[in-house]
Amino acid sequence: MVAVLMAGMALTGCKSSDTASDASSDASSPSAKGSPASPNLVATVPAAGATPPAAGGPDQATIQNTMSRTVEVATPTVHFAPVASPVTASDRTGGALTAVVGRRTPTADGHGQLVFFWQGNRFIGWDAETEAMSITKVTGGNGYFTVTYLHYAADDPACCASLPPVNVTYVWQDDGFVPSGGTRPTYGDPVRVKLNP
Fold first, then answer.
1. Where are the domains of the chain?
2. Is residue 196 pLDDT above 90, yes or no?
3. In a 3-state reduction of DSSP, which class is residue 53?
4. What is the C-alpha to C-alpha distance for residues 96 and 84, in angstroms, rounded to an integer?
5. Is the pLDDT assigned to residue 54 strictly greater than 90?
């Protein structure tokens, strides 16, 4: 695992001091879990004490289909693919909420990520209509997901965010997610996305 992280840091130009100490891997997911230093690594963790949701979240084919239909407005050949396992939480009424991190593809740098949200099998939307540079963790609880974003200063290189990560909680309310606590960080020019039919 350390060798994989070091190789990833060498490719992105980040130093070992930029790596979290609690990174772990998940062989079933397209990327490993954990490190906020690398945009390719995303942890998905259910919150302690979370009520298990009823079955009924989207299957892998539904997730893939929705992500492949999500494209950049300015470059519609760029779509999304999952980079972490789904995180499922209760909607507090016996239903399931699901959050999955998707990354634009193709990508040369591993950046350009969104969180995709579902209630049951119904796609609700994204954490925003613009890409985040890097998402490092998603946790779920009763009726909410907390997303951790890398936070870049205006002059930071893409490999190495210098500001503390930002947590934004998305609360399930009135058939949608409402951001609460924290503001989703921005970096550079916003890259807007849309969902094709």
1. 42-195
2. yes
3. coil
4. 18
5. no
